[in-house]
Inverse folding.
């Protein structure tokens, strides 16, 4: 009788652990993460998109370019691309692994809302994204180079060196 109770208890514990692990590692849409944050900061407003996005494009560990995106069309494209990404939680963030920035794959995006709230999204590379200080593993292969193209194309003509436009066509 005692042996059967131990087996039942062990099965319940094992099942509970499996359910917790599966729930922790299930995929999450970035849009849900961004949406839950914007729902918290934007209560009682119709505001859903940021007014502007301040972007930092990393070319290497030592080189970056800061650019601002204010075009509503470009902001919608960036937010849509981010929202469609799928991620999962991590136990060990890549800080301890010594990741390196990758050209056309590493960005820090600050989304500024009319309500004076800011949301930070840091795309560490093609594998990891940090949203409001929580790091997630990117599932699949989203087109991160397209973010670069959107940001560069949103800049007024003549404000950037031709070098930045040439990078768009580079296949990395």
């Amino acid at each position: 009788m005692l042996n059967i109770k131990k087996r039942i208890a062990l099965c319940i514990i094992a099942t509970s652990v499996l359910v917790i692990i599966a729930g922790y590692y299930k995929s999450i849409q970035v849009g849900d993460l961004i949406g839950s944050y914007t729902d918290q900061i934007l209560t009682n407003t119709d505001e859903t998109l940021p007014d502007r996005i301040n972007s930092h494009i990393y070319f290497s560990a030592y080189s970056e370019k800061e650019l601002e995106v204010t075009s509503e069309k470009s902001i919608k494209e960036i937010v849509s691309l981010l929202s469609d990404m799928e991620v999962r939680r991590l136990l060990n963030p890549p800080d301890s692994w010594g990741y390196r920035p990758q050209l056309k794959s590493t960005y820090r995006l600050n989304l500024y809302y009319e309500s004076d709230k800011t949301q930070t999204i840091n795309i560490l590379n093609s594998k990891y994204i940090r949203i409001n200080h929580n790091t997630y593993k990117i599932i699949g292969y989203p087109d991160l180079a397209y973010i670069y193209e959107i940001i560069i194309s949103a800049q007024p003509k003549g404000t950037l060196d031709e070098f930045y436009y040439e990078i768009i066509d580079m296949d990395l």
In short: The chain has one domain: 28-169.
